[in-house]
Amino acid sequence: MASSSNSYNSPCAACKFLRRKCMPGCIFAPYFPPEEPHKFANVHKIFGASNVTKLLNELLPHQREDAVNSLAYEAEARVRDPVYGCVGAISYLQRQVHRLQKELDAANADLAHYGLSTSAGGTPGNVVDLVFQPQPLQSQQPPPLNPVYRLSGANPVMNQLPRGTGGSYGTFLPWNNGHDQQGGNM
User: What does the DSSP assignment read for 26-56?
Assistant: First the structure.
């Protein structure tokens, strides 16, 4: 938790941003210190002060700090990427993990191939033992998604887009009908 009281009687970032007097029981004061005005500005821009107040009042006091940190992270991501926000960052990281897994698999295949070919030639064959076998994660991880929301009547439907292989951007975009930026098919 940040400071539980206003330091030097300075209003918290929220009250300062909203241009109001910061009262001793201000719900924002412990989570939006005056040293971090951008934190509240982003949260207010994305979620609104009234909604954040309602959310914090509904939570137990020990849950509020995590909620504010989550709101601040989501707001920062939404300010940086107004379309995808956090989902864009998560998708980017999932694609990076997938790419690195492919590289690791290729390196393991090369090691295995090298180990098998050298063991037949009389050189040490224990190179195969060096092949890295990644351990499965303890928790079930969902497969990487590229979510696209389409409105079908009043119900939003989430679809998974196929991954592109090539073109200048290398991704299938629903608005370009499967053609990359160069005009070729993906």
Answer: -SSTTTS-TT-HHHHHHHHHHH-HHHHHHHH
The rounded Cα 170 to chain-centroid distance in angstroms is: 20
Residues 6+ away with beta carbon under 8 Å from 23: none
In this predicted model, what pLDDT tens digit does every residue of 102-159 receive, in sequence order?
Answer: 999 999 999 888 877 666 555 554 544 555 556 655 555 555 555 544 444 444 444 4
Task: Supply 45's token pair.
Answer: 């821009």
Distances (CA, A) of 26 to 5, 7, 117: 9, 13, 71
**Contact between residue 112 and residue 128 where contact means Cβ atoms under 8 Å apart:** yes
**Angle (nearest 5°) at CA 178 between 173 and 181:** 75
Please give the model's pTM, rounded to 2 decimal places. Answer: 0.52
Closest CA to 29 of 73, 61, 51, 70: 61
pLDDT in tens, 2-41: 444 444 578 999 999 999 999 998 999 999 999 999 999 9
> Tokens 């351990």 correspond to what residue?
135
Is-contact 49 71, C-beta < 8 A?
no
Residue entry with tokens 């939003």? 156
* Calpha distance 59→52 (Å, rounded): 11
